[in-house]
Protein backbone atom coordinates (compact mmCIF):
# COMPACT_ATOMS: atom_id res chain seq x y z
CA UNK A 1 0.00 0.00 0.00
CA UNK A 2 1.49 3.34 -1.05
CA UNK A 3 1.49 6.22 1.38
CA UNK A 4 0.23 9.60 0.24
CA UNK A 5 2.84 12.32 0.51
CA UNK A 6 1.36 15.34 2.24
CA UNK A 7 2.22 18.34 0.11
CA UNK A 8 0.39 21.50 -0.90
CA UNK A 9 -1.42 21.24 -4.23
CA UNK A 10 -0.68 24.93 -4.94
CA UNK A 11 3.01 25.41 -4.03
CA UNK A 12 3.96 21.68 -4.08
CA UNK A 13 5.91 21.76 -0.80
CA UNK A 14 5.33 19.99 2.51
CA UNK A 15 6.08 22.70 5.06
CA UNK A 16 5.95 26.42 4.41
CA UNK A 17 7.08 28.75 7.24
CA UNK A 18 4.87 27.05 9.82
CA UNK A 19 1.79 27.32 7.61
CA UNK A 20 -0.30 24.24 8.32
CA UNK A 21 -1.49 21.79 5.69
CA UNK A 22 -5.28 21.47 5.74
CA UNK A 23 -7.84 19.48 3.78
CA UNK A 24 -10.44 22.21 3.12
CA UNK A 25 -12.58 20.26 0.64
CA UNK A 26 -13.48 16.69 -0.28
CA UNK A 27 -10.69 16.19 -2.85
CA UNK A 28 -8.65 13.03 -2.32
CA UNK A 29 -5.15 11.82 -3.07
CA UNK A 30 -2.41 14.29 -3.98
CA UNK A 31 -4.94 17.12 -4.34
CA UNK A 32 -6.27 16.77 -0.80
CA UNK A 33 -3.88 19.04 1.11
CA UNK A 34 -3.14 22.73 0.80
CA UNK A 35 -1.48 25.34 2.99
CA UNK A 36 -4.02 27.66 4.57
CA UNK A 37 -2.01 30.70 3.39
CA UNK A 38 -1.65 29.36 -0.17
CA UNK A 39 -5.41 28.74 -0.37
CA UNK A 40 -6.27 32.20 0.99
CA UNK A 41 -3.87 33.86 -1.49
CA UNK A 42 -5.30 31.80 -4.36
CA UNK A 43 -8.91 32.68 -3.39
CA UNK A 44 -8.04 36.39 -3.11
CA UNK A 45 -6.38 36.38 -6.54
CA UNK A 46 -9.30 34.50 -8.04
CA UNK A 47 -11.72 37.02 -6.58
CA UNK A 48 -9.62 39.92 -7.92
CA UNK A 49 -9.45 38.31 -11.36
CA UNK A 50 -13.20 37.71 -11.41
CA UNK A 51 -14.19 40.91 -9.62
CA UNK A 52 -17.81 40.43 -10.62
CA UNK A 53 -17.88 37.76 -7.91
CA UNK A 54 -17.64 40.48 -5.26
CA UNK A 55 -20.80 42.54 -5.09
CA UNK A 56 -21.03 46.16 -4.01
CA UNK A 57 -22.38 45.21 -0.59
CA UNK A 58 -19.34 43.08 0.19
CA UNK A 59 -20.82 39.63 -0.16
CA UNK A 60 -19.10 37.05 -2.30
CA UNK A 61 -20.96 34.86 -4.72
CA UNK A 62 -20.62 31.14 -3.94
CA UNK A 63 -18.59 30.52 -7.10
CA UNK A 64 -15.67 32.57 -5.78
CA UNK A 65 -15.14 30.41 -2.71
CA UNK A 66 -15.55 26.90 -4.11
CA UNK A 67 -12.99 24.26 -5.03
CA UNK A 68 -12.59 24.19 -8.80
CA UNK A 69 -12.03 20.44 -8.73
CA UNK A 70 -14.71 18.97 -6.41
CA UNK A 71 -17.02 22.07 -6.25
CA UNK A 72 -16.99 22.00 -2.42
CA UNK A 73 -17.89 25.39 -0.88
CA UNK A 74 -15.14 26.56 1.46
CA UNK A 75 -16.15 27.92 4.86
CA UNK A 76 -14.57 31.37 4.84
CA UNK A 77 -14.64 34.74 6.49
CA UNK A 78 -14.22 37.74 4.19
CA UNK A 79 -13.01 41.17 5.26
CA UNK A 80 -12.99 44.02 2.77
CA UNK A 81 -11.76 47.58 3.17
CA UNK A 82 -14.02 50.63 3.26
CA UNK A 83 -14.67 53.25 0.59
CA UNK A 84 -12.88 55.90 2.69
CA UNK A 85 -9.79 53.69 2.87
CA UNK A 86 -10.00 53.42 -0.92
CA UNK A 87 -10.09 57.20 -1.33
CA UNK A 88 -7.26 57.97 1.07
CA UNK A 89 -4.84 55.29 -0.07
CA UNK A 90 -1.67 56.52 -1.75
CA UNK A 91 -2.03 57.08 -5.49
CA UNK A 92 -5.84 57.37 -5.28
CA UNK A 93 -5.94 61.15 -5.71
CA UNK A 94 -7.57 60.71 -9.13
CA UNK A 95 -10.62 59.01 -7.60
CA UNK A 96 -10.77 61.71 -4.91
CA UNK A 97 -10.92 64.32 -7.67
CA UNK A 98 -13.77 62.38 -9.25
CA UNK A 99 -15.65 62.52 -5.96
CA UNK A 100 -15.13 66.29 -5.74
CA UNK A 101 -16.29 66.61 -9.34
CA UNK A 102 -19.42 64.63 -8.50
CA UNK A 103 -20.15 67.00 -5.60
CA UNK A 104 -19.70 70.00 -7.95
CA UNK A 105 -22.04 68.47 -10.55
CA UNK A 106 -24.72 67.75 -7.94
CA UNK A 107 -24.51 71.37 -6.80
CA UNK A 108 -24.80 72.61 -10.41
CA UNK A 109 -27.86 70.41 -10.98
CA UNK A 110 -29.47 71.86 -7.86
CA UNK A 111 -28.77 75.47 -8.94
CA UNK A 112 -30.00 74.88 -12.50
CA UNK A 113 -33.21 73.23 -11.27
CA UNK A 114 -33.81 76.08 -8.83
CA UNK A 115 -33.48 78.76 -11.55
CA UNK A 116 -35.59 76.66 -13.89
CA UNK A 117 -38.34 76.44 -11.26
CA UNK A 118 -38.18 80.20 -10.67
CA UNK A 119 -38.47 80.91 -14.40
CA UNK A 120 -41.45 78.59 -14.81
CA UNK A 121 -43.29 79.99 -11.77
CA UNK A 122 -43.04 83.60 -12.98
CA UNK A 123 -46.24 84.35 -14.95
CA UNK A 124 -45.01 87.50 -16.74
CA UNK A 125 -42.14 86.03 -18.68
CA UNK A 126 -40.84 87.67 -21.84
CA UNK A 127 -40.52 85.47 -24.91
CA UNK A 128 -36.70 85.26 -24.89
CA UNK A 129 -36.80 83.65 -21.42
CA UNK A 130 -38.22 80.44 -22.91
CA UNK A 131 -34.94 79.98 -24.76
CA UNK A 132 -33.08 80.37 -21.44
CA UNK A 133 -35.41 77.77 -19.89
CA UNK A 134 -34.62 75.38 -22.72
CA UNK A 135 -30.88 75.95 -22.21
CA UNK A 136 -31.27 75.26 -18.47
CA UNK A 137 -33.11 72.00 -19.20
CA UNK A 138 -30.28 71.01 -21.53
CA UNK A 139 -27.70 71.92 -18.87
CA UNK A 140 -29.45 69.77 -16.26
CA UNK A 141 -29.59 66.85 -18.70
CA UNK A 142 -25.90 67.32 -19.52
CA UNK A 143 -24.92 67.40 -15.84
CA UNK A 144 -26.97 64.30 -15.04
CA UNK A 145 -25.31 62.38 -17.89
CA UNK A 146 -21.79 63.31 -16.72
CA UNK A 147 -22.76 62.49 -13.14
CA UNK A 148 -23.98 59.03 -14.16
CA UNK A 149 -20.81 58.16 -16.07
CA UNK A 150 -18.52 59.50 -13.36
CA UNK A 151 -20.27 57.58 -10.58
CA UNK A 152 -20.16 54.42 -12.71
CA UNK A 153 -16.39 54.84 -13.20
CA UNK A 154 -15.79 55.47 -9.50
CA UNK A 155 -17.82 52.42 -8.38
CA UNK A 156 -16.05 50.23 -10.94
CA UNK A 157 -12.60 51.37 -9.73
CA UNK A 158 -13.63 50.86 -6.09
CA UNK A 159 -14.95 47.32 -6.67
CA UNK A 160 -11.78 46.38 -8.54
CA UNK A 161 -9.59 47.71 -5.71
CA UNK A 162 -11.81 46.13 -3.06
CA UNK A 163 -11.64 42.68 -4.65
CA UNK A 164 -7.86 42.87 -4.96
CA UNK A 165 -7.38 43.92 -1.31
CA UNK A 166 -9.93 41.56 0.29
CA UNK A 167 -8.70 39.40 3.15
CA UNK A 168 -10.00 35.84 3.19
CA UNK A 169 -9.69 33.46 6.14
CA UNK A 170 -10.53 29.79 5.61
CA UNK A 171 -12.42 28.81 8.78
CA UNK A 172 -13.53 25.19 8.84
CA UNK A 173 -12.21 21.98 7.33
CA UNK A 174 -14.64 19.27 6.20
CA UNK A 175 -14.81 16.25 8.48
UniProtKB/TrEMBL annotation:
CDD domains: RING_CH-C4HC3_MARCH (cd16495). It is a multi-pass membrane protein. The chain crosses the membrane at residues 129-149. Residues 1-77 form the RING-CH-type domain. Its main location: membrane. GO terms for cellular component: membrane. The keyword Membrane applies. GO terms for molecular function: transferase activity; zinc ion binding. Keywords: Membrane, Metal-binding, Transferase, Transmembrane, Transmembrane helix, Ubl conjugation pathway, Zinc, Zinc-finger. It is found in: Membrane. Gene3D superfamilies: Zinc/RING finger domain, C3HC4 (zinc finger) (3.30.40.10). This is E3 ubiquitin-protein ligase MARCH8. It comes from Porphyridium purpureum (Red alga).
Amino acid sequence: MATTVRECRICHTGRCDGDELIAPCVCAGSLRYVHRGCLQTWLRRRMARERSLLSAVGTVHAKALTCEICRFSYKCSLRTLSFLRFLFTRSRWYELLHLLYIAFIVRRIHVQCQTLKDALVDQHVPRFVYMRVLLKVFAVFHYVMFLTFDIKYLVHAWLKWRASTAQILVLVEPS
